[in-house]
Write a structure and sequence with these properties.
Blueprint lengths: L1 H23 L23 H18 L4 E3 L16 E3 L9 H17 L2 H28 L4 H7 L4 H14 L8 H21 L17 E3 L1 H17 L2 H18 E2 L4 E2 L2 E3 L11 H17 L7 H16 L8 E2 L9 E2 H16 L5 H17 L20 H5 L11 H17 L1 E5 L2 E5 L9 E2 L5 E2 L1
Antiparallel strand pairs: 1-2, 3-6, 4-5, 7-8, 9-10, 11-12
Helix pairs in contact: 2-15, 3-4, 3-6, 3-15, 4-5, 4-7, 6-7, 6-8, 8-9, 8-10, 9-10, 10-11, 10-12, 12-13, 12-15, 13-15
């Protein structure tokens, strides 16, 4: 009974205090619209310093997890001289693979970070690893020619078997040419050889449908994967810039429209993940990261496609529609869902990072309106930054994913900090956020993020919800 009375008295006390607070705070005596919202992730205009802190943390982590070293797989001893490479030589194993498509994406993200910051640490990261890949390739090629036995991570460089082996790394190598210096000329010649080797596979050897669309023979024969837009098309477009030959621009633009003819779902303004030639109906599962590869592909192509190209306007129109479809599905915490149009699936970080980059890049290029999409990007960056833990690991990233025609397949894909897909997109997103903050004019106004066409003076009036102003 005594305990019951104590609980009752405590409850009555709380009720009394609550009643007093309710009497003290009302619409007449308190500007309730200025109460601080309980954002779970973050809100407001980011500072360049905070963006850099996130990016630098990621760089330090991946640098520690990707040693640019060759070793003997039996003894672990370092192989210093390229002439000493044998069938037992392999890349020293860290947390991630230096030759995978995910790390091709990472090289591009790190290059973007270098261009945005001028920080030599980003440049050195890429140059050190691409130098190793280029220098080791001719020596491993001799070993491979003799007995066909070679480390799998090296084999991708010597003998690519799929777009995953070739496209993203090749494109990063083409981009890296712009940061080489006079001292790097010998390296540039070796990388040029790898570029030609990779590009030959993509353009002349990759499996295709009868009309030339990049395709696979799994899980069904003649399946088109949305992922392969990014795995192949940007390299084709950049080969146009690399060689000056218009045929590459034409083929890249043609591939974009071939994919769109099968994968674009106009009523959703989204892409489906997979298309199977032998099926009359084509289920539309709008996987987040695959839609990221699609819009990233369009950004990459538009970056190099000549303004006068006859299909440029069509590709730009498709990008704008896709941006609109994506923005409409952003979660209020800034992320996007694993299946974009299914809010019962989890919030996923790698797709969110890709969209952050692509939408920010499109604003900075003048392709979409910053006043419309700037707040979307800013909110998304808060989500991306929240995904990077103190070690620099990217959390909430979906692991490698095939194709399915049921929602459970996507909804239950695991997430893991060692999923390599998140690191490049996070750095790419951070780099473009820095560019956005330099070129655009975001400002808090009446507690909301707004983007303006020009700098708003700090003493400009801020408008309240009722039309009045405060300074």
């Amino acid at each position: 009974m005594a305990n019951y009375l104590k609980v009752l008295c405590f409850a009555l006390t709380l009720t009394s205090v609550s009643g007093i607070c309710a009497q003290q705070i009302n619409d007449n005596n308190t500007p309730l619209h200025l109460m601080k919202p309980a954002y779970r992730i973050g809100y407001g205009v980011s500072t360049a310093e905070s963006v850099r802190q996130t990016m630098d943390r990621v760089l330090r982590y991946i640098d520690s997890e990707t040693p640019a070293v060759l070793v003997d797989k039996n003894t672990g001893a370092e192989v210093v001289r390229m002439e000493d490479i044998t069938a037992d030589t392999q890349l020293k194993q860290g947390g991630f693979r230096l030759t995978s498509y995910e790390w091709g994406v990472t090289y591009s993200g790190v290059l973007a970070a270098y261009e945005a910051t001028g920080d030599e640490a980003y440049r050195d990261y890429v140059c050190k690893r691409l130098k190793l890949l280029a220098e080791m390739a001719p020596h491993f090629a001799k070993v491979y020619a003799k007995n066909r036995q070679i480390d799998g991570n090296v084999r991708r460089v010597i003998d690519p078997h799929a777009l995953d082996d070739a496209g993203a790394v090749c494109c990063s190598m083409i981009k890296a040419g712009s940061i080489f210096r006079d001292a790097d000329k010998p390296l540039k010649a070796l990388i040029d050889e790898r570029i030609r080797h990779y590009a030959d596979y993509i353009i002349n050897k990759e499996y295709r449908l009868a009309d030339g669309t990049f395709a696979r023979i799994r899980p069904q024969k003649n399946t088109v994967w949305l992922d392969d837009m990014f795995m192949g098309i940007p390299t084709v477009a950049y080969m146009g810039k690399y060689t000056g030959e218009a045929k590459y621009y034409d083929e890249a633009a043609r591939q974009v429209m071939l994919f769109a003819s099968r994968m674009w779902v106009p009523e959703k303004c989204l892409f489906r993940h997979g298309w199977v030639e032998s099926m009359e109906e084509h289920p539309a599962f709008h996987w987040g990261r695959a839609n990221g590869w699609a819009i990233l592909t369009m950004c990459e192509v538009l970056d190099v496609l000549p303004e006068s190209h006859p299909q440029r306007a069509e590709i730009l129109s498709l990008l704008k529609k896709h941006a609109k479809g994506l923005a409409a599905l952003q979660h209020h915490d800034g992320f996007w869902h694993q299946l974009l149009d299914r809010s019962d699936t989890y919030l996923e970080s790698s797709a969110t990072a890709i969209y952050t980059y692509c939408l920010a890049h499109a604003i900075n290029k003048g392709w979409i309106d910053g006043k419309v999409y700037g707040p979307v990007v800013q909110l998304a960056w808060h989500a991306v930054a929240s995904s990077v833990n103190e070690k620099g690991q990217v959390t909430g990233c979906c692991v490698g994913t095939g194709m399915g025609f049921d929602p459970a397949f996507y909804a239950y894909r695991p997430v893991h900090v060692m999923a390599a897909h998140g690191y490049g997109p996070v750095l790419w997103a951070g780099a473009e956020m820095l560019n956005l903050l330099k070129r655009q004019h975001p400002k808090m106004n009446d507690s909301a993020v707004w983007f303006y066409d020009q700098e708003v003076p700090t003493d400009a009036p801020i408008f309240n919800y009722d039309g009045s102003t405060r300074f």
